[in-house]
Amino acid sequence: MVTCADDVLWLRTKHRIVGSLEGSHPANPLQNNYFGLPLFLMPEETALLIERDAICIEGDKFEWPQSERDQLRFKLFKDLHGRGFFVTQGIKFGGEYLLYPGDPLRYHSSHIVSLVDHGQTVAARELITLGRVCTAVNKIRLLSSWNPHTDHITHITLNWSGF
């Protein structure tokens, strides 16, 4: 949890870390369109900042990733962040992450990222569903998979188009 506005700005501008503002806005606490401090970070964002020695955790020890799925999510997050994207939670659109080509305050997300297990067969019905969701919200689906043999993440885009 980040409570200082200067720290929030530093995370956003220097590290492309967005987090999620969860507090009520002091000027209008009953509205729920815009939120204020504190800022909560995703575990992936926190782990990346710790790995880069950009922050240290006070009090309780931060232990993440804990599961194999968490490890895959962290590898995927680091890969996407390393490619220059702003990365936020994608649950709103049924994905792991949303990708932004620039600061989310200025840009709309361009991709919905789904993590697919390596070697997993994706049914045609599921591909159609993923494609339709992306078309409805004007985004591209990014299917991402980590190959344990090469220690590399592969990305495939799914973009619905009419004939």
Q: Brief overview, please?
A:
Helix content is 29%, strand content 23%. The chain has helices at residues 5-15, 43-51, 68-82, 124-136, and strands spanning 20-23, 36-40, 86-89, 97-100, 111-115, 140-147, 152-158.
Annotation keywords:
163 residues, five-stranded mixed beta sheet, 29% helix, alpha+beta
Describe the fold and architecture.
The protein has 163 residues and is an alpha+beta fold. It has helices spanning 5-15, 43-51, 68-82, 124-136, and strands at residues 20-23, 36-40, 86-89, 97-100, 111-115, 140-147, 152-158. The chain is globular, with a radius of gyration of 17 Å. The relative contact order is 0.11. The mean pLDDT is 93.
- Summarize model confidence as the mean pLDDT: 93
- The SSE string, one letter per element, is HEEHHEEEHEE
Q: Based on DSSP secondary structure assignment, what is the total number of beta strands?
A: 7
Q: What ranges have pLDDT less than 50 throughout 5 or more consecutive residues?
A: none
% residues in beta strands? 15-25%
Basic shape = globular
Compute the gyration radius: what is it? 17 Å
> Could you give a short account of the major beta sheet?
5 strands, mixed
| Coarse structural class | alpha+beta
Strand order of the largest sheet: 3-4-5-6-7
Q: How many H/I helical runs?
A: 4
Helix content: 25-40%
Distance between the termini: 48 Å
